[in-house]
Design goal:
This is Methylamine utilization protein MauG. The chain has two domains: about 1-180, Cytochrome c-like domain (Cytochrome Bc1 Complex, Chain D, domain 2); about 190-320, Cytochrome Bc1 Complex, Chain D, domain 2, CATH 1.10.760.10. The chain has eleven helices and two strands; from the N terminus they run H-H-H-H-H-H-H-H-H-E-E-H-H. It has helices at about 1-20, 50-60, 75, 125-135, 140-150, 155-160, 170-180, 190-195, 205-215, 285-290, 310-320, and strands at about 235, 260. It has a two-stranded antiparallel sheet with strand order 1-2. Helix 2 (about 50-60) packs across helix 7, helix 4 (about 125-135) packs across helix 7 and helix 10 (about 285-290) crosses helix 11. The longest helix is centred in the N-terminal third of the chain and has 18 residues, at about 1-20. It is globular.
Length: about 350
């Protein structure tokens, strides 16, 4: 099984490596995309979205040049065909090293207040550089990457158009990738249509699941708002919490020990395996975990208590979460400068 996962990951890397050599290709059904002038997502004033910045960021995102081996791109682990994740229990990094965390999707990361499972990055600009420079993940020397980019005429042109008053640097690399990542947003879901007044857009089971989500199951205690996350950090009683301090490594107060960021739930049916350690393969397993109140009682979040859900109620919760899957948004792979 482990070998199969390696092969799947390797095929994914080859897919993007070869695909990116070609001209633009569609990998999802075409859906109208809002022009940059009408973006609704938040962004920092010093990195306002422009078509030129988004194109540069997208090009860097799909280009394996950002890794030390020139084999791994951001899209290797954040694959648009896998819910912008990788479909693996935990990520695979440089030299096929198996890492300790499940790859979080970048869907709707524009709305996130802190990045990574432990919240160590304050914004997407900082997040974008983290995996690139990590010896375990992409193992790229940032200074060497800057020199590589400066020696490619196509990249010099892209950077000049995107950031005409700034040089090619770690700052502009991070800014560009962040600009693209902010455009990766969920499409309208059947749940959204139901909320707008279309009663037939989701099943009765999903409707019951939504009531449970906000009631007996207490999911909305942490999964709140339009993105279904409080952007907070909680210890939900996973067995691996005894080995991983989580947020505690950055905020050394007891309540943070074993706590990890609450993920959003839009398109959650596409982004398994689940939890920061990838310990559950299905949404059904996730619901079972919460129903029993977690597995590790040390420093457990006070909201984690046995729920005593019936078999039907568990199924209804899963149906509701599936209704949060949005329409696939078209994404094109740009030709890579060389």
């Amino acid at each position: 099984m482990f070998r199969v996962l390696y092969i799947l990951w390797f095929v994914s890397v080859l897919f993007f490596f070869n695909l990116c050599k070609e001209e633009t290709k569609e990998i999802a059904p075409k859906t109208p995309v809002k022009p940059v002038e009408t973006v609704s997502y938040p962004y920092p004033e010093d990195n306002r979205p422009t078509p030129e910045r988004i194109l540069l960021g997208k090009t860097l995102f799909f280009d394996p040049i950002v890794s030390g081996s020139n084999w791994i791109s951001c899209a290797s682990c954040h694959n648009p065909g896998l819910g912008w994740s990788d479909g693996l229990k935990t990520a695979i990094g440089h030299n096929m090293k198996v890492l300790g965390k499940n790859t979080p999707t970048i869907l709707n990361s524009a709305y996130g207040k802190k990045m990574f499972w432990d919240g160590r990055a304050e914004n997407l600009e900082a997040q974008a550089l983290g995996p690139i420079a990590s010896p375990d993940e992409m193992n790229q020397n940032i200074d060497e990457l800057i020199l590589e980019l400066k020696n490619i005429s196509g990249y010099k042109e892209l950077f000049a158009k995107a950031y005409p008053k700034e040089d090619i640097s770690a700052v502009t690399i991070g800014k560009a990738i962040a600009n693209f990542e902010r455009t990766v947003l969920s499409g309208e879901s059947s749940f959204d249509l139901w909320k707008k007044g279309n009663p037939a857009s989701i099943s009765e089971s999903a409707q019951r699941g939504y009531s449970l989500f906000n009631g007996k199951a207490q999911c909305s205690a942490c999964h709140q708002g339009d993105q279904f996350t409080d952007d907070g950090f909680h210890n939900i009683g996973l067995k691996s919490n005894r080995k991983d301090a989580g947020r505690f490594s950055l905020v050394p107060v007891k309540v943070m020990k074993g706590s990890f960021k609450t993920p959003g739930l839009r398109d959650v049916a596409l982004t398994g395996p689940y939890m920061h350690d990838g310990s559950y393969s299905t949404l059904e397993e996730v619901v079972e975990h919460y129903d029993r109140g977690g597995d590790d009682s040390s420093n457990l979040d006070p909201n984690m208590k046995p729920l005593k859900l019936t078999k039907e109620e568990k199924a209804d919760l899963v149906e509701f979460m599936k209704s949060l899957s949005g329409k696939r948004i078209a994404i094109s792979i740009p030709a890579l400068p060389r």
